[in-house]
Predict the structure.
Amino acid sequence: MTHLASLSSFLRPSLLAFICLGLIACGDAPQHSVRVASQGGVFALALDHTGEHAIVGAVHDGGSLWQVAEERKLHDLNHRSGDDTALVASAFSPDGSRAVTAERNAIVMWDTATGAEVGLWTTGAEIQSLALSERGRVLVVGLRDFRALLIDTAGNFPTGQVRHASTVSAVAVTRDGSIALTGSDDGKVRAWNLADGSERLAWDLASGVSTIALSADDSRVFVGRYHGKSVVYDLHSGQRIAEIGQARSSIISARFSPDNARLLTGFPNGRLVLWNLADGRAFREWQVPRETLRHPTAMVATDVAFGQRPGQIVAGFSNGSVLSWGP
C-alpha cells in the first residue's frame, strides 16, 4: 500500500540515498529493472505477494496492471473509459485474484485475471489507504476525515466504520477478513474484530503511522512509523516482538518473509533493508543504483516483496521502476 499524502511528502533529495547504514554492506546491483511508467513517476505502486505483478498509478499513464518479469502491461485499470485516472492508493488481495484502486473519493475492485471491474464504491472523504482480504471479500478503506470504512464486497455495502482522532493513514486486514487494523497520523493503531465491531487490541506509537503489514499466517503485524523506530507485534497477544529501524528513520513499505523470520522494508531514499526478527538487527541492505539517483526527487520505495525464487527480493519505486535483486 501507498498513498499520495505520504508519498508526496518524501519526493525530495536526501543525502541518505548515497550512503549505507553503519557496518552493513550495501547489496549488489539489481539483476532486473522494469519501467512501468512511460514518463515521470507514479502516484501509487503496489506489488502482489511475490512481486510478480504490479498495480501502477502513473502520473502520465493512469492506472494499469503489469506482469513484472515479462515487462508486459496486462490491463488498463482506469476508472472511466478514455480517462487516465490519478490513482492515490492501490492494493492486491493476498491470493492476487483481486485488486483495488482508488482516486480521490472512489474505489474500483478488479478481477486481475481478466481486468474486469467487479465492484465500485464512493466515499465522502479523501481516500488514504486500502487493504483487501482473500478473494477481495472484505475491503478496508482509510480516510482523511479520521474514519476507516469496512466493506463487505459481496454485499456491496459498508458493514461499519471506526473512528480515529486523526487521518487514517494505513490499514490492513487478515486473509479471512476477521480482523482489521487501522493506523492514524497521531500514532494510534487499533485491531478490530469485524464480527461484532469490538476493539481487540490497541497500541500507541507516539508518531504517525506510515504503513501496516501482516505476515502471511496473520500471526504478526508490522507497524511502520514516520520518523521513529517501527514495531513488530504478535497479533494474538498484542506483545511486542521486535523494534525495527532507527530513531529518525521512516519506513514506507514492508513485507514479512514466508517463514516470519525476516522483514523486508523500504525507505523514502531508495534504500531497502532486510531485518532479522529474532533480534531486530539489520543484516542486509540494497541501495538504488547511483545512476538512477540523478533524479532523486522520485525514489520512495513504495512497495517491497520476496520474490518467487529463494533469496530474491523485488521493490517498486516512485520514479516508475520495479527492480529485483538475487538469483
Observations:
- The two ends are 26 Å apart (CA to CA).
